[in-house]
Amino acid sequence: MAFPVRSCALVGRFADARVAETVNALLPHLKSRGVEVLLTQSAPGIEAAGATRVADAGLGARADLAIAVGGDGTLLYAARLVAHHGVPLLGVNRGRLGFLTDVMPQDMLASVDAALAGELDKDERPMLAAQLHTASGAIVQALALNDVVMQKHDTGRTLDFETRIDARFVNTHDGDGIIVASATGSTAYALSCGGPIIEPHLDAWVIAPICAHTLSDRPIVVSSRSVVEVVLLERPDTQANVSCDGMRLGALVPGDRLEVRAARERVTLLHPPGHDYYKLLRSKLHWGRGSFER
User: Does the global pTM surpass 0.85?
Assistant: First the structure.
């Protein structure tokens, strides 16, 4: 993180009244600290006098700090904008569950001042790199902080597909799809598919089948140094979609190959001092409600 912080990017769904309210409080606060405020050009719903509008693709190169206002989906989008530039990311929670956006609105201004002073805890998270290799030889790629998902497209039929890890055959699956999740993403979609929660600093991924038609087809945990491949098998009307953190990467058809590996890029999340991952789990998953709760 560059000091002093000269520019700060604000990312959010500004058409949401709660997000707009928060951003309208942040704008004068940052400007009073002498910080240039950057907003994406594709963000309607807010009048930002004195802020600089920047194309989404150029936001990371211009910012010293990024603040995502909303839910985890907003932070995931912001992570993709800044990942190539090493810009640290602070999440202000105006969403629902919020595993990643852990600063509450009432603590926001104090946390922003702490971020400007370099007093927040830095939490470096690895990312996934997805590549979609088509039969024509084209390659489409994207980054993900949480997960890469392959699932059926617009049909009630299940998919037949194979997985390989480091070029070694693992299994033939029959189901709605599969998730490759980072440790960070283990509390997202993979969790609803029966996957385990992985402490975010472990070098491990979860591979979780979606609605598998075989009870023995279970989630597995693999090294984050693995290369995971997914290939669709021939079947009438077989087509799947691939998404990275909920954003569509492209279609997968028989003859194509999805490859997931560790990305070179990493994202630095900023947390208030004393951030406790297990306290976060207790809060979001409603653990520890008995007599021994602390």
Answer: yes
